[in-house]
Amino acid sequence: MNSNAALAFLVFYPFLAGLLCYVVGRISDGCENGADAAKYGMRRDYLADFSVILELVIVLLLFAVSGPRVAAGVAEEFFVPGICGFGLHFSLDGFRLVYVAVAAFMWMMTTILSREYFAHHENRNRFYLFLLFTLGATIGVFLSADLYTTFIFFEIMSFTSYVWVAQEENEASLRAAGTYLAVAVIGGMVLLMGIFLAYHYLGTVSISELLPAIRSYQDNGGDMKVMYAAGACMLFGFGAKAGAFPLHIWLPKAHPVAPAPASALLSGILTKTGVFGILVVSSQLFLHDPTWGMLILVIGVVTMFGGALLAVFSIDLKRTLACSSMSQIGFILVGVGMQGLLGEENALAVHGTMLHMINHSLIKLVLFMAAGVVYMNAHALDLNKIRGYGRRKPLLKGIFLTGALAIGGIPAFGGYVSKTLLHESIVEFGGGFGMQAVEWIFLFSGGLTVAYMTKLFVAVFVEENESRELQRRYDKEKSYMNRESTFALAGSAAVLLVWGLFAHGLMDRAAQLGQSFMNLEEFGHVVSYFSLKNLSGAGISIVIGAVVYLFFIRTVLMERERKGVRVYVDRWPSWLDLENMLYRPVLLKFLPVVCQVICRIFDSLPDLLVVGLRKSIYRDSPLPHELPEGTVFTLAGGRIANFWQSIGNRLWNRKHPVHKDYVHILALRRAELNENNMIIGRSLSFGLLLVCVGLSLTIVYILWW
Q1: Which domain holds residue 697?
Q2: Number of other CB atoms surrounding residue 318 within 10 Å
Q3: Which of 57, 268, 518, 649 is found 20 to 30 A from 628 (Cα to Cα)?
């Protein structure tokens, strides 16, 4: 299989596989015999497993065939013509190859876990259909060679992953899915505006051509304010998917209600598609731009600290991990911002950014799948209810601990290496009080990470549940996951562990594969990750984490109940919810009212203008022979009817005479008929007028642009 066929297979095969799984599953649903239904259900599950395993195998073959070429900086491209005029353009380089491999690996592990996780769930056919659809769309985003292709698969991914959030179809999941979809759609439309604006001024949306195009634009005296506007629109769209502040609102809402396999992918991979877009804008449109770098840095710092703070207060297992994802995205954005500020000497920031992306993906795969095992058996996520669940489960405890230590930045684990690179990039930049503040917020956020992961581990795997009966049930539970799920969790934890242990052999090489994507030619020197200077940074964060856990979480965020048992309490103010406090009131109340007022004004403006003209310039004046009402025909007919009425009253209606003014009656009938005809005519005319206006604007746009 050549590289072009492999790229096409990676993108389009998951869509076909999803349809096949759905058809096989529907056959299972139609079987009246229980044995036949179970047989076809197993076939659907095995087909899904085979599809994702095959996807990973093709990626590994690409590594073997194309790895040496992409490592040398030679990108491979594939074009599908005739799609919406522009066609679909795909490219393979080191960064894309690494992240496609990460995505395929994560999909394989989560799909294997899904078989047991959804054993007693409904709508499994729908889940597998959209699971594989989203795989194809995500691979399409990472392999996209132009922003148009990126946008197409970005929107497909948003709509297919919406089904994950709404999978349970209860009130909480549907509300969270609505929030997720609203953020995705609004972000996608703003992203499209930015792409159109960049295309108009640069003449290209090809990612590899953006950098020379904007340099030519600057050399010809182009206004960079326009490019900043286009970049801001694209940052809005990509940042919404990445979960960056203030567009993070879907993260804490979607993860607790989504199935655990979906949560692992939403957090570990789908957020990285947003980061992928931000990297494209930052390293192609605004390469080494300090203004843009400072903007990304500020957003990253707020996202990093805000997510960690929310995670410290949370008492829901998956919500804590979701807020943690927001915080780790902030760490990554700090690296992206430092790339712009450091300019050509940004090697530390480039390597730290890519490695923390990979680390976060692998870590959240482990942590969310472990949380899924807890939920499968305990049917709860509240820390007080699942407290002590894993005390007698050494395998699950070790798996979760591996992820917790890695995300906490503990030395010898992957998270330590990437955070060390990011921290060193801040130190290397130097600067005054502002950058010192950034460094301390970075270290403090790392300390908060240690604190909330310690809280989760102690609550689930160390402490005893307040209910002795429930704790006994937890301790007696031996078979809490089958062999396939054990393979998925233990295999993912083993990969994460090995990845972190071989920092120079694996992590540095992966970072070097991706550096050309961010326009870094060479990495200046080998970092001594375990030098005293670098260890001191991790040590500061660990000490901060210990202090926060002991003197804030164990005191302020816990209280003693009547039985004398200390329980976790959620002290985050309920009103301090950005979605309910700002977004929903603005989008659902304020904007509709404002739009209604504006529409009413424009609707009444023509009538007011006509009335004003009639009262001023074109004053109404009676005609010389104007009738008081009706026409000459209604007047004549009314007079004839009145004449016959008078004759009847004299001859045969003497006792009960009738006195009706038929002149007035016929005038009213004529007025009603004219009014009905006018309403019909106006409706048709108004519709035709709108059609004409739309066609005219379309013609003007085509001729002008």
Answers
A1: 636-705
A2: 24
A3: 649
